[in-house]
């Protein structure tokens, strides 16, 4: 075990105290297969206690002078920035992504706290025209206790983008991070403690995801669930919440199309594809998963793409020269291999990669080569299934209508991308794509000030931006007669 992990708390954090448990779970480094920590697993009573604590802390946190709440949030942002190096190392050890990506993720979390701190000052109400002796007003108020459930692929970013707006709007929190990557979450909670956040305002529980999810959805003291993760689990939580009628935000799976039109800047398109596809080794809900290339430029596009992919260095994320790290678990490798075999069995060509790396430095980790599949079509699983790994499937098209129809032929609707020059084609693309986000000649689509979220089976609700904080308030109408 390295020092950054030895020094870390591994217990639950409830009502401002670290709470230990009998039951523990191993955390594995996916680059080495080693157990790097054992974390506490909450029982039912401890989960209830965390919810109760957040419920009791709500009235005090809500009533705090806005200036004071804003100061806490800026303090947390300062601490995230000061500790970015340490938090990045913890993240790479438990999740595998290259250190530089981990550091950017921690710093973007600091930005989330700053953005939402300032946005909380602008949660303006509204006055509605009313008869002379009346005042009609809308006041935005915090919801109460927010329960957050987050995935392993962004162990820090998925947490900060929920907790920052929730706290900024005056809510309290109970977080359940992914069991695969709880250490980044614990490191963030240590910073909450250092920031002297009032007791009970932010709590963390780890343990059986099914049981904790059920406790959240069943509790009348939980007023909102914010979930990022797979579509099937999001749907289950939605269904479970029917009896207690929770406000919900669901950030679910994606299967992003990436269209390269005949008039695209091919070099820019290849650069954008490499950046978006191989970030976090393709384990990203907004990663391009189906690459539609116009047949007239296909050869030129491939000539540029293939050497770029072959030059990527796979390795332990702690090594500075690694461009891509391991996948998260053994079963993630199996799933990618199945998709590759299914595609090649049905006629796809393996252009490069496709194999697990098992020798030397790779022997105990979950490493796979970056892969390009050509001649992919709708008969293959990879056309419809979310791909959570470093695989580029190439599909050719002849007309933009054909490309757009294929791009929309999915249950998902999170992110989409296109490279083109003609302004009328760009307009047609951005209007026709059935997605929550569209990147045109650009793959950077996630910023604190811009809305992030999906349609269709990718869920609902928006994170980041001025819309994000609105997910954590309720509109109260007051009609006053004078
Ligand atoms: P997952 O299996 O759905 O898990 C997500 C979270 O839900 C984890 O904390 C998990 O806990 C928990 N969970 C699992 N089963 C549960 C249950 N029955 N009740 C309550 N909670 C439960 O997803 P994942 O594999 O971690 O993440 C990958 C997925 O997330 C992909 O589909 C990806 O597209 C999606 N994602 C979406 C976005 C977005 O913004 N739209 C962003 C990132 C990722 P344990 O890990 O402890 O089991």
TrEMBL record:
<dbReference type="InterPro" id="IPR016160">
    <property type="entry name" value="Ald_DH_CS_CYS"/>
</dbReference>
<feature type="active site">
    <location>
        <position position="251"/>
    </location>
</feature>
<dbReference type="InterPro" id="IPR016163">
    <property type="entry name" value="Ald_DH_C"/>
</dbReference>
<comment type="similarity">
    <text>Belongs to the aldehyde dehydrogenase family.</text>
</comment>
<feature type="domain" description="Aldehyde dehydrogenase">
    <location>
        <begin position="18"/>
        <end position="478"/>
    </location>
</feature>
<dbReference type="InterPro" id="IPR050740">
    <property type="entry name" value="Aldehyde_DH_Superfamily"/>
</dbReference>
<dbReference type="GO" id="GO:0006081">
    <property type="term" value="P:aldehyde metabolic process"/>
</dbReference>
<dbReference type="InterPro" id="IPR016161">
    <property type="entry name" value="Ald_DH/histidinol_DH"/>
</dbReference>
<dbReference type="GO" id="GO:0004777">
    <property type="term" value="F:succinate-semialdehyde dehydrogenase (NAD+) activity"/>
</dbReference>
<feature type="active site">
    <location>
        <position position="285"/>
    </location>
</feature>
<dbReference type="GO" id="GO:0009450">
    <property type="term" value="P:gamma-aminobutyric acid catabolic process"/>
</dbReference>
<dbReference type="Pfam" id="PF00171">
    <property type="entry name" value="Aldedh"/>
</dbReference>
<dbReference type="InterPro" id="IPR015590">
    <property type="entry name" value="Aldehyde_DH_dom"/>
</dbReference>
<keyword id="KW-0560">Oxidoreductase</keyword>
<protein>
    <recommendedName>
        <fullName>Aldehyde dehydrogenase</fullName>
    </recommendedName>
</protein>
<dbReference type="InterPro" id="IPR016162">
    <property type="entry name" value="Ald_DH_N"/>
</dbReference>
<dbReference type="InterPro" id="IPR012394">
    <property type="entry name" value="Aldehyde_DH_NAD(P)"/>
</dbReference>
């Amino acid at each position: 075990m390295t020092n950054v992990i030895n020094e870390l708390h591994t217990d639950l954090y409830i009502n401002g105290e670290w709470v230990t448990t009998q039951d523990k779970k191993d955390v594995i480094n996916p680059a080495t297969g080693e157990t790097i920590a054992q974390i506490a697993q909450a029982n039912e009573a401890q989960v209830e206690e965390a919810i109760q604590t957040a419920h009791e802390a709500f009235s005090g946190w809500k009533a705090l002078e806005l200036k004071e709440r804003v100061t806490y949030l800026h303090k947390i942002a300062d601490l995230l920035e000061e500790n970015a190096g340490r938090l990045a190392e913890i993240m790479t050890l438990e999740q595998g992504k290259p250190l530089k990506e981990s550091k950017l993720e921690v710093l973007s979390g600091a930005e989330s706290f700053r953005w939402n701190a300032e946005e909380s000052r602008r949660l303006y109400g509204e006055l509605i025209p009313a008869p002379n002796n009346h005042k009609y007003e809308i006041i935005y108020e915090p919801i109460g206790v927010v329960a957050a459930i987050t995935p392993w692929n962004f162990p820090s970013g998925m947490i900060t983008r929920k907790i920052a707006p929730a706290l900024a709007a005056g809510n309290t929190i109970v977080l359940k991070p992914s069991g695969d990557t709880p250490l980044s979450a614990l490191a963030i909670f240590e910073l909450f403690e250092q920031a002297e956040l009032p007791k009970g305002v932010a709590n963390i529980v780890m343990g059986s995801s099914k049981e904790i999810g059920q406790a959240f959805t069943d509790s009348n003291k939980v007023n909102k669930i914010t979930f990022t993760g797979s579509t099937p689990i999001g749907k289950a939580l939605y269904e479970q919440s029917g009896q207690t009628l929770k406000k919900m935000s669901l950030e679910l799976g994606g299967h992003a199309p990436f269209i390269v039109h005949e008039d695209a800047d091919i070099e820019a398109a290849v650069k954008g594809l490499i950046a978006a596809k191989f970030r976090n080794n393709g384990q990203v809900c907004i990663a391009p998963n189906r690459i539609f290339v116009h047949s007239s430029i296909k050869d030129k596009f491939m000539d540029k793409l293939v050497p770029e992919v072959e030059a990527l260095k796979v390795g332990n994320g702690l090594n500075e020269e690694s461009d891509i790290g391991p996948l998260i678990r053994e079963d993630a490798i199996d799933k990618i291999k199945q998709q590759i075999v299914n595609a090649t069995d049905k006629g796809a060509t393996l252009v490069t990669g496709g194999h697990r790396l098992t020798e030397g430095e790779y022997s105990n980790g979950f490493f796979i080569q970056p892969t390009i599949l050509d001649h992919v079509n709708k008969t293959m699983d990879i056309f419809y299934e979310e791909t959570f790994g470093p695989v580029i499937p190439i599909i050719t098209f002849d007309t933009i209508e054909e490309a757009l129809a294929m791009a929309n032929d999915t249950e998902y609707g999170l992110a989409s991308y296109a490279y083109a020059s003609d302004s009328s084609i760009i307009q047609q693309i951005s209007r026709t794509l059935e997605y929550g986000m569209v990147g045109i000649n650009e793959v950077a689509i996630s910023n604190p000030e811009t809305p992030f979220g999906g349609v269709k089976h990718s869920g609902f609700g928006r994170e980041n931006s001025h819309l994000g904080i609105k997910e954590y308030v309720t509109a109260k109408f007051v009609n006053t007669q004078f």
